Write the structure tokens for this entry.
Amino acid sequence: MDPLYREIILEHWQNPQNAGVLENADIDITETNPLCGDEIRLTIKIKNEKINSILFSGVGCAISQASASLFIEEIKGESLDFVKLKNEKDVLKLLGIELTPARMKCALLIFKTLQIGFTKLQ
Amino acid sequence: MKQDFPIFKTYPDLIYLDSSATSQKPQMVINAVYNFYSKNNSNIHRGIYDLSQSATDMFETIRIKVSKFINAKDAKEIIFTSGATEAINIVANGWGKKNLVKNDFIILSEMDHHSNIVPWIRLKKEIGVELFFLPIGEDFKLDYKKINSRFLGKDLKKIKLVSLTHASNVLGTINPLEEIIQFFKNINPEIKILIDAAQTVPHIPVDIQKLDCDFLVFSSHKMLGPSGVGVLYARKELLENMEPFIVGSHMIKNVTKEDAVWADIPDKFEAGTRNLEGVIGLGAAIGYLQKVGFEKIQTLEKELIVYALDMFEKQKDITLFGSKKSENRLGVFSFAVGKVHSHDVSEILNRSHIAVRAGHHCAQPLMEVLKVSGIVRASIYLYNTKEDIDRLFEGIHEVKKIFKG
């Protein structure tokens, strides 16, 4: 098995979950990784302080796409308080791989996008 | 040739295919820099003492060497800059701001590098000049005659500058400059021509007088020399009337508390202390290139280009962004492996010590034209071999295996 491109990563890269854009979203944020040009647009609808629906779109490498797909699966339907407690380590744990500093940025782009999205909400 | 480059002794497994980004350095260049620091180091144009005099002589000898290398008429037309990017900024600020007005047109191309786009975008923001990008046409060639359908009659008179890359750092296309320059000079002989030769000077002979351009820029680090050094060539009469971009020490004749008088060219454009050891290293790089000879370099590279194109031709699921013909192109191969992202390709190639560039290659407008967000680029130079190309394709095979392409 490949140490970086694990089956789960390739699966999510091939068939990303929760891909798309929500209309009339409460959070609509686009972030890029200027180093490589990867881009993620995240749209979220919030209901009763919970993430009611969430979709992402964008371009990026297998790591950034799989990371976004996996992380969104993890937080979908959860309460805002719960999601705000998530940290970078939780994202990396989902991927379950060792990353170099450059690729770390790919993996964490989704997390960074969400954090900036939350600041826009307040 | 590899034995002349110490990096390949340090890393015998290294397959370096990123020379369009920067070249490796031969021992001759490294020695020149080392020797300058060990034997000649002192500031130039300052001291009366012997050491300073000899450093000054060395520095000025290289100015002459550079002028001969590109066949400029006068060594005073050679300005040492920090690189091609700074050189273009000097023209944009020193010539552009002084000579261009609102609604004047600058012609660029869709295959230009950010370094030949962004300085002009700033000028557009600052003084309202307009930009027109020559489109890429058939077989990744510049369709410069499109200008006729865009500009009619008096509009043509608004074209003041054509600033073009000699070759695309992504597509590899070498533009037929003599033809293009003639085309624009026929429209109006007053149109100024700037050539970004950063990609070509390392690979093919560049002759200023034959090209008949007004400005030409290139960088030392892409032609075996040290980084942080570049050259701006400009016609003497243009330089004399241009404003310096950076002012300070060395570039003055006289300074009082109220006023300063600029020095003559080339000093006017070389404020502060230049990258002395870098210029000395550039001189050694030119020496190395001349020792090998461009004829040999071109023969060598042509063989690799034909070989690589043939390999690309045989591959399924690989898109090559560039001409499949070996004529009028550099050994620059930008490609995509299926729908695998360029960074994933590069990551897997790196496992086999293959160094390629991934991403937008400082040419985002071109990426838009090609409708890609990023691509992988393998670029060759005189130290590469057929074995390097074989290793690249073995690496690509590995990428396909992992991504089940």
User: Anything to note?
Assistant: The interface with chain B takes residues 2, 4-5, 10, 36-39, 59-63, 65, 103, 106 of chain A (CB under 8 Å). The mean pLDDT of chain A is 91. Helices of chain A lie at 7-14, 62-75, 80-84, 88-95, 101-121.
